[in-house]
Design brief:
- The protein has 533 residues and is mostly helical.
- Helices cover 61% and strands 3% of the residues.
- It has a two-stranded antiparallel sheet with strand order 1-2. A two-stranded antiparallel sheet has the order 3-4. A two-stranded antiparallel ribbon has the order 5-6.
- Strand 5 (268-270) and strand 6 (276-278) form a beta hairpin.
- The chain is globular, with a radius of gyration of 25 Å.
Length: 533
Amino acid sequence: MSAPTPGPPLDNGRDKSRIDDSNASTTCKEDARPGLWSWTKLDDTTAVGPRIGPVLQSVATASSDSDDSIASPGRQHELEKGNAIQYRTCSWQKTAALLFSEYICLAIMSFPWSYSVLGLVPGLILTVVVCLVVLYTSLVLWEFCLRHPEVRDVCDIGQMLFWNQNWAWWATAIMFLLNNTFIQGLHIVVGAEYLNTMTGTDPGVACRTVSFGIIVALVCWLCSLPRTFNTLSKLGVFSAFFTFISVILAAAFSGAQKHPAGYDPRPSFTSDSGVASVGGSPIVTTFPVKSASYIACFNAFLNISYTFIGQITLPSFIAEMREPKDFPKALWACAIAEVILFSVVGAVIYAYTGNQYMTAPAFGSLQETYKKVAFSFMIPTIIFLGVLYASVSTRFIFFRLFKNSQHRTEHTITGWSTWAAILLSTWICAFVIAEVIPFFSSLLSLMSSLFDSFFGFIFWGVAYFRMRKADARAGITRKRGIGTILVEGTNIIIILVGFLFLTFGSYASVLGILEAYDTGSVRSVFSCASNGL
């Protein structure tokens, strides 16, 4: 049982303030490792629970003398004082700008296609449910980062979650880099789609899609060169603003145009390629049509999930915040905005386009002029979001190459040339991926099933149980009420959903890709043919 204490406990001569939890007994008991107390009070509203383990050797600094020394927000700021390049400089407003630029992105335009497969009601319900799950798991992630302020990316978290095993770090690192590179590749695909759409059938461009992919990759590489998120956040505001205009215009144009692109007044007809097709007025369904396969429905669900799931970058954002405790302000602002925007834009475009004329992204369902105008406002996000993920990957490699080095914190030729070279290598890999999987919705589904299973679900369910175990070890006992049981059950379901994504989701994504190649609905790898909408 807890007992009143005359003052905060002392750890190596430093005060450690604590607060009481209404459902927990917070004693002055130490963790099994010295210097790790039950609760640390940051301010009147935020308190941090105990760590799940010691500071990883990979993030310890040469000047740190103990776990407790490096694992404090104040110490993290002290380590950067006097550096020419300082990383922990983002306010919560700038972090919100990064979140908006990450979530308010081109993938919004896959929602109408998802609704056409799932039906409008299940599609909207899944949109809200996925948003709530991502919001909850992001708050769990934030709590974990507050307990371990020295972590700089999701790979550090992965190693800590799985008992400091080296294999966990390497497995997380591989998935982390592949996920980010796939996203870069997606934006090369879309960049080439945009250029092909704008130029039509101009015979002056040799091997047009491959050429456009190279151009987009080079432009993105140049835009990736800034070293801090503080700088990129300014570009993020610009990107999110133009993306918002683009999707609102697409929704407005879908209602303003007389008919969707590809409209045919005949109820049924045979296309020029000999395929039996359905025409007539747009068909909008409340629930999935009987002919919809489980594979198609699951791929549509994966598309929705991918757009919301972005926890892989959150540790990197939190690590560069001036005050990490303010992160929920940015998170709530973004979550509310995105669920409203995604639902409204997806439902409106689907209502005016219908099942038979839907494309992914939905710009292809607009008439020519409308399509070019709305798509053009998407240029900043086509470039910026790939840039953001390239920066996160490069930061991960760069910080480990130059740990405790002046090249990391000062403007040196070696530092900048290495930074540029790593960025270039990520964009070359992304270009190869873009040419091997050259279509939008299937690439989204594959990425979601392979990587979101861990970074969107499994990791944060495991993190919840690891933190509760650390609480119990520190003497914090919680009442076994209905609320606790429901939260624990929710986290078990989150872990199981992650494994469902990984297994059946990957199976559905691969089958969808093979089916697309078999039916000839997509071009071949490294094809010169146009992929314009």
